[in-house]
Amino acid sequence: MRTIAIALVGVLLAGAMRVVADEKPGEHQPYRVQPGDLLTVSVWKEESLQGEVLVRPDGGLSFPLVGDVAASGKSVQELTREFTDRLEHYIPKPVVTIQVKTIGGNRVYVVGKVTKAGEFAFSRPVDVMQALAMAGGTTEFAALNDIVILHRDNGLLKAIRFRYGDVERGKDLSQDVLLQSGDTVVVP
Predict the structure, then answer these.
(1) What's this model's pTM, rounded to 2 decimal places?
(2) Can you say how many angstroms the Cα of residue 89 is from the centroid of all Cα atoms in its chain?
(3) Which of 121, 179, 119, 120 is nearest to 148 (CA)?
(4) What pLDDT digit, counting tens, does each position of 62-105 carry?
(5) 2-27+105-187: which CATH topology?
């Protein structure tokens, strides 16, 4: 129970410090489409061009007249522009609306000495401390200063060290990185 309380206090402290140190008023990152997401696409006054589209595991999707599109990693606005550009060959001044109906692709994994290891879906940015809280906190046997984040960058797997004690005390907050879909937090 003490470990969970410490994790939650750490999350709150780290989050509050990051808001003060890093965020600029009015700044936010757009959501990036991921494999597994379900999108709703509609083209105004074109009933045959309306429907739901699942982003495939390879990150692509297919839509009538638009063809195959690499959707993974793009914002909804970028996809809307791409659909509009492709549809202009067939429809004058198409009005395209794309919405994310279900977020199914953003997942992080927390394994090791945590209360509830597993896969966790997220719909907003999640940092390491928040992921640990999602996993119910660490167990009393966890090596808190030897936590590692496994992250793939252009296909290469890299390990990022995370010292829980530093972040808990408000030191070296830069290591409490925002996780990306597919990242794994390993708590030895």
Answers:
(1) 0.63
(2) 34
(3) 179
(4) 999 999 999 998 999 999 999 999 999 999 999 999 999 988 87
(5) Outer membrane lipoprotein wza fold like (3.10.560)
